[in-house]
């Protein structure tokens, strides 16, 4: 399947989206095609890694917080918000299939729960603990691995979700990890936790 254009990706994506953690916004593309949020400027400036072709992520590994999860594919729900992984005991991360695959140019978006109802903790329960310089590896269907380095971790109110920084066009391979966070109000979380990372290495 050919990826959607970056403009269509930005228009079609919804921002704060995890079921059981509150609703979200619809994404709006930046007028310049580039994210205007300061978070993107916090990404480390390493020598560019080899840009990869399109290959679906099948596993996500984040050693600093003990994550080693299969990755499922997510699309759009009927209301045009991004689908989320089901609330199950074997909680997994999900990749938004209308975003670039990890290692392609642009922001590849992966989502995960912080809690999964009666099943307890979600796969991204410790996402907020990540720090600048931590490593994230996406293993792809074609056997390639794309390693990313965390540039920044932000906790933002859902009402102030930085849509353009998350979904806006960029000219290099980047990664966005999103979950819920902050104070809990009933079954909802007030905030989103967003990890911004940039490609640092690839292996075949």
UniProtKB/TrEMBL annotation:
Keywords in alphabetical order, please.
Hydrolase
Please, which domain of life does this record's source organism belong to? Bacteria
Record InterPro entries: Sortase, Sortase_dom-sf, Sortase_F, TAT_signal
Report the PROSITE patterns cross-referenced here.
PROKAR_LIPOPROTEIN, TAT
Q: Show the SUPFAM superfamilies listed in the entry.
A: Sortase (SSF63817)
Which molecular function GO terms apply here?
A: hydrolase activity
Task: Give yes or no: UniProt keyword Hydrolase.
Answer: yes
Q: Which CDD domains match?
A: Sortase_F
> Any idea what this protein is called?
Class F sortase
Q: Which organism is it from?
A: Streptomyces pilosus
């Amino acid at each position: 399947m050919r990826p959607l254009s970056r403009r269509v990706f930005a228009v079609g994506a919804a921002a704060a989206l995890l079921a059981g953690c509150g609703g979200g916004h619809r994404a709006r593309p930046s007028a310049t095609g580039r994210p205007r949020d300061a978070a993107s400027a916090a990404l480390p400036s390493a020598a560019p890694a080899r840009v990869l072709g399109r290959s679906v992520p099948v596993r996500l590994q984040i050693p600093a917080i003990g994550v080693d999860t299969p990755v499922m594919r997510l699309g759009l729900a009927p209301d045009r918000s991004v689908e989320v992984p089901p609330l199950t005991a074997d909680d997994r991360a999900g990749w938004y299939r209308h975003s670039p695959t990890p290692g392609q140019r642009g922001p590849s978006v992966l989502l995960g729960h912080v809690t999964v109802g009666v099943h307890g903790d979600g796969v991204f329960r410790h996402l907020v603990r990540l720090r600048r310089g931590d490593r994230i590896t996406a293993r792809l269907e074609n056997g390639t691995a794309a390693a990313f380095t965390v540039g920044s971790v932000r906790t933002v109110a859902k009402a102030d979700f930085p849509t353009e920084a998350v979904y806006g066009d960029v000219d290099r391979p980047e990664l966005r990890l999103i979950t819920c966070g902050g104070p809990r109000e009933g079954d909802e979380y007030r905030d989103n936790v967003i990890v911004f990372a940039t490609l640092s290495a690839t292996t075949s």
